[in-house]
Amino acid sequence: MLQFEILKNPNPMPETDRAKAFENLGFGTLFSDHMSVIHWSAEKGWHSAKVTARAPFALDPASSVLHYAQEIFEGMKAYRAADGQIVLFRPEENARRFNASARRLAMPELPEEDFLAAIEKLVALDSAWVPGGEGSLYLRPFMFASEAFLGVRPSREYIFCVIASPVGPYFKGGAKPVKIWVSEDYSRAAVGGTGAAKCGGNYAASLLAQAEATQHGCDQVLFLDAAERKWIEELGGMNIFFVLDDGSIITPPLGTILPGITRNSIMTLAADNNITVHERPYSFEELQADLSSGRLVEAFACGTAAVVAGIGELKHGNGSLTIGSGEIGPVTKLLREKLIGIQKQDLADTHGWLRRIAV
Q1: Of the candidates 175, 174, 171, 167, which has an alpha carbon nearest to the alpha carbon of residue 22?
Q2: pLDDT tens digit string along 238-274?
Q3: Cα–Cα nearest to 324, from 347, 350, 290
Q4: Residue 147's domain spans which residues?
Q5: Count of the separate structural domains present in the chain
Q6: Has residue 328 been placed in a domain?
Q7: What is the CATH number of the domain that holds 67?
């Protein structure tokens, strides 16, 4: 296991300024005082682990990441309970998914214990940056190719880093139903591609479709499959679930979509509450038929950033579809409350998902 050097920021944000910033938290615009950094090279492997003052990187213009996009990342959160205890939610799963992404992009895997140490040491040092209440500390571990060269091959140098950002709700207005635009022109991923990896290119490919969604007054975009343009896959940044009138749930299967940790947690919590989840292909045509018959009564999206967001309306090129009553349904509410209750330590962590941070 790597030994981390701790170099405290000599000019941290004053406590009064931080408290003021916490009064109106957005998402991903405010950052803590420190960051974790580890370097990798073909000669040395992983080395030079440290937690240091957050600062810009100096990159050569020929750095591989700028030309061939060898870059991956994760998203996770630290939560503060009412008693002040700080916890991470299933960080081991983030470590495993990070390495799965690394394998897909021909990048070196980071040992799980070093991934977790980089997270925990940063959160411990910046514990004052973990807000209470509805807020949380969003953590962004990422890795990029830093070798300066213009040949098309895997880089021989990489930088792993973790930065932290105190955040409020992802969608403004709190827990209210969101509107989704169904993209029939753009695809996010294809079989054999990088859809199951958490890499920046997937998100870059979604931005034009997201802009289209915004133009139609929607919060997010829903992608269909690349081959037939009929099967529902996922949103630009979240997985999706559909609740039927018999209480069961349908969610698209893995393969071309991201294996969401929140998705997996929701499926486990559904089973805990005797809710059957079917992982199967679900077409947009079937969805419309189920809405017409009244069989489809709720829909929701989930992910680390937004947690669980009820879907009230789907817009597409030929019109608009209201999901159920257009409000957040009881199954969505139940699963959201169960998940947040565990994350905030208001409910028992029967699955051992929480990892406590020693401050």
Answers
A1: 167
A2: 999 999 999 999 999 999 999 999 999 999 999 999 9
A3: 290
A4: 5-167
A5: 2
A6: yes
A7: 3.30.470.10
